[in-house]
Design brief:
Layout: H1 3-8, E1 12-14, E2 26-30, E3 35-40, H2 55-71, E4 78-88, E5 97-107, E6 111-120, E7 123-135, E8 137-138, E9 141-142
Antiparallel strand pairs: 1-2, 2-3, 3-5, 4-7, 5-6, 6-7, 8-9
Amino acid sequence: MDVESLKAAGWTWGEAMGFTGHLGPLWVRATDEAQAVGMIVEDYHCNNNLGTMHGGAVMTLADIGLGYGVAAILDGFGCVTVSLQTQFVAVAHIGDFVVCQSEIIRRSKHLVFVRGLITSGDKTVASAEGIWKVLQPRSGKLQ
């Protein structure tokens, strides 16, 4: 998928900072039902000489994608990953547009439970589920 096709499909480019910047560039899209984060697989995301997306890159996309969905419901509060499980189903290749779409399962005062699928077109690459802790502001700093 090329940049113009992504824009036409409602995706917007988001600059990735910090560790997340190593995965980017990232694309984001929100609907009434879900949040999604996507990326085009490049050679630096892949296993050496295989041309397939490295499992660590898949897990990082899951962490970012699910976390994006959690952050969208927190009204400005921060959050951190407490637990993340990833199940690999298939491979993605260089040039594939890979998407993590999140689904919030349950929210309590301090925790958010979320799951999602990482897909490339009609193919499921991985599934993931996790728990995020809601950070409460304290003395001007998130704790």
